[in-house]
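Dear colleague,

Thank you for sharing your sequence with our group. We've completed the structure prediction you requested, and as agreed, I am returning the results in plain text so they can be pasted directly into your records. Please verify that the sequence below matches your submission; if there's any discrepancy, let me know and we will rerun it promptly.
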Amino acid sequence: MGSKLSIALLALAALTPAAQAQDKSSDIIARGEYLARAGDCTACHTAPEGRLFAGGRAMPTPFGTLYTSNITPDPDTGIGKWSADDFYKTMHSGRFPDGGLIYPAMPFASYTKVTRADSDAIYAYLRVIAPVSQKNKPHELRFPYDNRQLILGWRTLFFSEGEFKPDPKKSAEWNRGAYLVEGLGHCGMCHSPINALGGTSQSDAFKGGLIPMQNWYAPSLTSNREAGLGDWSIKDITDLLQTGVSMRGVVYGPMAEVVHNSLQYLNDEDTRAMAVYLKGIAEGSSPPAAATALPTTESSLLISLGKTVYDKHCASCHGTQGEGKPPHWPPLANNQSIEMQSAVNPIRMVLNGGYPPGTKGNPMPYGMPPFAGLLSDNEIAAVVSYIRTAWGNRGTPVAAREANELRSAPLN
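Please find the predicted structure tokens below.
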């Protein structure tokens, strides 16, 4: 008996190094999949109705249309011949393995902060997904933007290469949140103002801006009057990131896609770390409300009409005093997304309606119906003006012209 046991133990010991190597490889691949989720790689590299990571998704920009690349391990049309060094070079420096320049629609200005270990893990994961033979579609950019050498100028102005450096004055949790928000999460791509050259200065990071071609406003993450989370609880922030709904608000539009594709899959520790960081970068006080450009008489008429429209179509869900029924029907009173200087988002929600994302924590979200076919431009402007100024809200009225312009905004 003892002899047989000894032989079995010796055989097990002989297999241990290989088994350990296999377990380690599996762990790295699983971590890579998690990190690819955190980086929301699916959103760009998987076309609607397309194969996972096979590229071909159209990315409209003010300079023309870019098409995302195939990052499956197909050796001829994907990245099957790339080494881990090649992949890291692409993530870190925004260059192809042959040195070619990558258009900054890929957020390499954020991905440069990703550590080599995390880059290698994502690479390991991409090596084991199903290869797809699908050639990359040529970009359709207007002259002179089809000249890649112009990217050198963009890089000089807006790109600082280098991995994330922790702030020794901050906690490990804060630094983990900063790494995810500034790096893999590339939140600044949307939540920062983009200038005519398609770039953002470092001083304007996370200060909010209109997302080009999509006509959604990504609010400031620093201003407490917009999406700054300084007076939110950590639970309210983590609920919003993980489920798309919280007692303080609901996500719609592009942010709903981010929660659905990416944020809902993060573990509790990373979600909390992001919440701690986001809460920490918010300003200490709110700036004063901007003055309205509308004449006082026109504003008064709009707001009077707006109350009538609101009471008829909105109060049953959002409450007569804008109190809502959180988390599913968000409050409109003292709602930062309603009061922002830009009224694009509330106008679009009234026009187009929408749903929060379906997530593990909220698999059957409540939606808002569209009113574009039911209400006129004047009525849309009126009800948005009303909810932006009623119940102590510090927003400003909007004009019918603004509602009319957004009727043609793309829904995707």
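Summary note from our side: The chain is about 45% helix and 5% strand.

Kind regards,
the structure core
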